[in-house]
Amino acid sequence: MSFCVRVKNELAAIRPSECCKRPLIYGFMLFGRSFSFKRISVQTGNKEMAQLYSSLLSDIFGAAVKITAGGKIRPTYVAEVVSEADRLKILAEYDYGIAKKLINSDILTRECCFQSFIRGAFLSCGSINDPEKEYRAEFSVRNEKLADEFCELLSGYGIRLKKARRQNGAVLYTKESGCIEDLLTLMGAPHITLDIVDTKILKSVKNNTNRRSNCDSANISKTVEASIKQRRAIDYLSRHGVLESLPRELVSAADLRESNPEATLGELCKLSDEPLTVSGLNHRLEKLIKLYKELKK
Predict the structure, then answer these.
(1) Per-residue model confidence as pLDDT tens digits over 169-225
(2) In order of start, what are the domains of the chain with their CATH numbers?
(3) If 99 and its partner were Cys, which of 58, 104, 247, 265 is the partner (CB 3.0–4.6 Å)?
(4) DSSP state of 247
(5) Quick one: CA dihedral 220, 222, 223, 229, positive or negative?
(6) In whole angstroms, what is the distance from residue 5 CA to residue 56 CA?
């Protein structure tokens, strides 16, 4: 199973609340293959995505959806709203052709609904690379104006994507690991987000420890393992606005570890601006890990 499929499966497994169903399917449809009076359809290589699309439309609008399988080398599934009456009903729900913008943000007033909309858009036209190979997430959008509006919406959440024009629309993308983590967190994929954080930490530590030939391999492994645990906790606490509210000594310990991911505790103590023992620093870092575990429960 590819990394992208794993991400989409985790996102698709999230069961939306009643208020979020319409924004979710809206994102799915708007960024699909076609969203107009003539045709409403999505194309995907994942059968489960096509079935999710079909079940949501049936549940919300009572619409009949036809799923057609194709593709000789790679399977593709096209899910299409069959009835013109159903299409008109769906388009009217989202003020299609009436609203000034292509994205009707009036139905995205709640944060949970906005997140569901972004999730639907990603399930429809998004992709993500395996972080072991390359940091990259993107949305292939069929309409450049739609891409610009979507980019503006995401920038309001601090997620800034670059745009590459294509013959039929545009690709919005980012190669920044932090931006990808924020995007996944926004869409509701915390487990995948932690996988990326772990990969980033592991890469950083390995790149640095590989340069230190005088280190014993067992010690390197311990340093790597400890650093991953500590930085995972720090990243989580920082991302959820907890870190900044902690006592100064814990924030200082977190900053010290973040700035020196490959360093041993002894080396960190030497780099500290205040007198610090190995046991004292370890105690502070363990406190951060303990707090992270408590919040995760």
Answers:
(1) 899 999 998 889 889 888 988 777 777 777 776 766 666 655 555 545 556 667 778
(2) 3-187 (3.10.28.10), 190-296 (no CATH)
(3) 104
(4) -
(5) positive
(6) 20
